[in-house]
Amino acid sequence: MSEKKTFEQLHIDPIQQQILAQVAELHEVPEGAYSLRVNGASAAVGSSEHVTIVKKEDKPGIDIYVAPGTKHESIHIPVVLSQTGLKDLVYNDFHIGEGADVVIIAGCGIHNCGVQDSAHDGIHSFFLEKNARVKYVERHYGEGDGRGGVLMNPTTIVELAEGSYMEMDTSQIKGIDSTVRVTRGTLAENATLIIKEKIMTHGEQYAETNFSVELNGAGSSTDVVSRSVARDQSKQKFLACISGNTACHGHSACDAIIMDQASVQAIPELAANDVEASLIHEAAIGKIAGDQLIKLMTLGLSEEEAEAQIINGFLK
Amino acid sequence: MLELRHISYSVEEEGKVIPILQDINLTLDDHFIAFTGPNGGGKSTLARVIAGIIKPNEGQILLDGEDITDLNITQRAKAGISFAFQQPVRFKGITVKTLLDLAAGKPLSLKAACAYLSEVGLCAADYVNREVNDSLSGGELKRIEIATVLARGTKLSLFDEPEAGIDLWSFQNLIQVFERMHQEIQGSILIISHQERILNIADQIVVIAGGRVRQQGSKDEVLPALLQGEASLRPAGACFGKKQ
Q: Which residue of A has its CA nearest to B148?
């Protein structure tokens, strides 16, 4: 372990610092293990006593090894792109040892003020050993005043061993022109995968999320919950496929508010391959209820303020 | 003081004009006023007209002498009118505390928010961080709805059938809430109700039937006739004559 450095020492400029604050709430180089990736290259990597981060030799990316039994550690792995036209592809593999319990804060921010598209495609694989627990938080954010697009296509692969638990909290609130998110989960006995997704699209943006969960172990369960708001002419597609291959519980829900000329498509798929599999899907898409607006207006809010409150609450 | 002058409202259905309110004239300057009358008689519509949710075809509304006819819902709320819905609205993601903050127009201290909830008989600690969503029962929602009106503390508070859709046990408590409100609240309360115990604490009762004001007066003037059951005036399903 080396002495903690400042952003300036790592040559992270003010725009990049601002993006780090947005996507990872980082205002300084974090304590504990971290990896900062800036403009397609690793800017800094730090390991801790129980968490080792190693750069991959054969391709861009890192391997993160969390020692068995590690408790109460946070790992920060934000990515920043501020160079227009850059297409970044990164492979991050997380190996979480038996009984470990950690929080991983990822996030990608793109600042594009050029005319070419900037893209970040992250392929994250999680391997949780027996009884390991992970809370994974990922925020996606884009900004810039150029005409270049901001594209993000994250893929997440989750393999959960017996009794392990993973909660994935993802949000994409602003500025991503196009995203196709793919998440695949495979669960062993008594493993649990909770996915909470929040998306807001506006302008001409497109967001597609594609979840597929295989419940292979007895007593495994998953809950895939998507809340989204589509404004202007933006389009969203939600696909969730849950396969129950044994005695298990699966639930997916897509709850969307649609505004202006936006469109939202929800495509649930449930495959029960065992008589003991219990699978449920719920989907509700609609505009903001008139009664909700009226109620908040009777409290003295203007229609615009009421709408903002409803959306903020919905995506909280 | 609230004045309604020649308020009329009608809707069109399959080419036919259906009158809902017909030339309503009322001057309401009491502390606690109850609107009663049969279902479909126009009470809720009139309350919504007062709150600005429904725009009447004709007529004028004055609040403390100021013409508020052309004010929208937000402007009327700011002018001092609160409205508790008969069927309170649910919000995914908005907590009880946030709703109370919005009602008060400022972030309330936890203590203040809890005081409003306790006032309506809810154990504040259990509710303050709950979302105003499907997890709340009808009775709980009604109480939260009333708490938002208390948090606003405006000069006129409208309650549209606060007793509707709640169980008998909750109703007993609700009556106490209104009895307390009658003593403590500074402004005027206008409550739509079919319940004798609520009508009993009213300073003035207005009977609305067939879109018109059928009778108006003190409870001593109006209640006996209602209790004796003038059929045309008695609200459907009302429990008049029996103590709850």
A: A299
Give pLDDT, residue B241: 41
**CA distance linking residue A154 with residue B139, whole number of Å:** 45
CB contact (8 A) between residue A255 and residue B92: yes
pLDDT of residue A145: 67
Kindly list the residues from chain B whose CB atom is less than 8 angstroms away from the CB atom of residue A291: 85, 89
- Closest residue of A to B94, CA-based? A313
User: What is the distance in angstroms between the Cα of A120 and the nearest Cα belonging to chain B?
Assistant: 31
Low-confidence residues in chain B, pLDDT < 70: 229-244
Give the minimum alpha-carbon distance from A192 to chain B in angstroms, rounded to a whole number: 23
Do A281 and A133 lie in one domain? The reply is: no
Is A298 within a domain? no
Q: Which of A289, A300, A313 is opposite residue B77, by nearest beta carbon?
A: A300
pLDDT at position B242 is: 41
To the nearest whole angstrom, how far is the Cα of B227 from the nearest Cα of chain A?
Answer: 34
Which residue in the set A289, A298, A313 is minimally distant from B83, CB to CB?
A298
> How far apart are the CA of B78 and the nearest CA of chain A, in angstroms?
5
CB contact under 8 A, A300 and B78: yes
Same domain, A206 and A112: no
Q: What is the tens place of the pLDDT at every residue in A47-100?
A: 899 999 999 999 989 999 999 999 999 999 888 888 777 777 889 999 999 999
Domain shared by A160 and A61, yes or no: yes
In the listed set A137, A152, A173, which residue is the last one of a domain according to the structure? A173
**Residue segments in chain A with a per-residue pLDDT below the cut of 70:** 1-3, 145-147
Nearest CA in chain B to A308: B94
Count of domains in chain A? 2
Provide, as residue numbers in chain A, all residues whose Cβ is less than 8 Å from the Cβ of B83. 298
Do A197 and A151 have their domain in common?
no
Residue A309 lies in a domain: no
Predicted complex: ipTM over 0.85: yes
A13 part of a folded domain: yes
pLDDT for position B233: 53
In a domain, A283, yes or no: yes
What are the angstrom distances between the C-alpha of A225 and each of A196, A228, A265, B147? Answer: 5, 10, 15, 31
pTM, two decimal places: 0.83
Q: Please write the tens of the pLDDT for every residue from A182-213.
A: 999 999 999 999 999 999 998 899 999 999 99
pLDDT of residue B240: 45
* Range of the structural domain that residue A232 is part of: 177-288
Are residues A72 and A6 located together in one domain of the fold?
yes
Provide the 3-class DSSP secondary structure of residue A252.
Answer: strand
Residues A246 and A223 in one domain: yes
Say if residue A28 is in the same domain as residue A135: yes
**Which one of A122, A148, A173 terminates a domain?**
A173
Cβ–Cβ below 8 Å for B91 and A294:
no
Give the integer Cα–Cα distance in Å for A58 and A66: 21
Residues A166 and A204 in one domain: no
